[in-house]
Amino acid sequence: MNIVCLDMEGVLVPEIWIAFSEATGIPELRRTTRDEPDYDKLMKYRLAILKEHGLGLKEIQNVIATIDLMPGAKEFLDELRSITQVVILSDTFEQFASPLMKKLGWPTIFCNTLEVADNGEITGFKMRCEKSKLTTVKALQSIGFDTIASGDSFNDLGMIQASKAGFLFKSTEQIKKDYPQIPAFETYEELLSAIKKAL
């Protein structure tokens, strides 16, 4: 049995933190997992900037409400879900993902959760498990699934390399150069075709 594991941001929806950076005019918030491989370090850096500017969950959710899916994302996901099982593995947070999952037709997503104070300040974050994407792929394999994975960032490499087939999608030139052995695609048609061949 196959299951496809997809990253969310950069694959199906634009990067939330980049959209928030643009909305607030705070360039430091543009840093993502494409730039910083250490997710814990990245999130602590983000939370410090939010605190410094007095920004909380509500402000981020207001920006997320304006984010549209990447063109063709829902059609791609709908077709994929009609032929195989799909789960979205994301290092985002439940409090961010929900409106985007609604736009995608409520696919299954495994992600993390934010710790939020009564005043809306984001005080911390709780990761579902360590190396969540790789750990989840290995867990799925342990219960009889063959995994096929796709993502765009450093934190997707583990699940891509551990799967029977793995693909980079709309990744950076640097990541593509550093991992030339991983097929890299720019369109949903190409990615769908590669996944179908791997099934």
**Strand arrangement across the biggest beta sheet:** 4-3-2-1-5-6-7
* Main pleated-sheet profile: 7 strands, mixed
Mean pLDDT: 97
Radius of gyration: 16 Å
* Helix/strand structural class: alpha/beta
H-E string: EHHHHEHEEHEHEHEH
What percentage of the residues does DSSP assign to strands (E)? 15-25%
Notes on the structure:
- The protein is of the alpha/beta class and 199 residues long.
- The protein has a domain at 2-12 and 70-111 and 129-198: HAD superfamily/HAD-like (Rossmann fold, 3-Layer(aba) Sandwich).
- Helices cover 44% and strands 20% of the residues.
- It contains 9 helices and 7 strands.
- The chain has helices at 16-24, 39-53, 57-64, 73-83, 94-103, 132-142, 157-162, 173-178, 188-198; strands spanning 2-6, 85-93, 109-116, 122-126, 146-151, 165-169, 184-185.
- Strands 4-3-2-1-5-6-7 form a 7-stranded mixed β-sheet, with helices on both faces.
- A hairpin with a 5-residue loop joins strand 3 and strand 4.
- The longest helix has 15 residues, at 39-53.
- 35% of the residues are buried.
- The model has no long low-confidence stretch (mean pLDDT 97).
